[in-house]
Amino acid sequence: MTTLYEVSQQREREEQRPYDPFTDGALEALKRATKKARRRNIALLGSVVTWRDGKIVYDTEP
Prior knowledge:
Blueprint (H helix, E strand, L loop, with lengths): L3 H13 L4 H25 L2 E5 L2 E5 L3
Antiparallel strand pairs: 1-2
């Protein structure tokens, strides 16, 4: 789980780096691919195995 502090730190880093269309486009493509893969895995197997807070969690939500 991401904390509010981590989100604020991430925003500060993102604001400091210059805009790069290739990098930003690649990041968005990876996010879309991750969502698609999670949905497909949940549809086929019923869950996705995720490591969260030092534990293995079986997510059933995309």
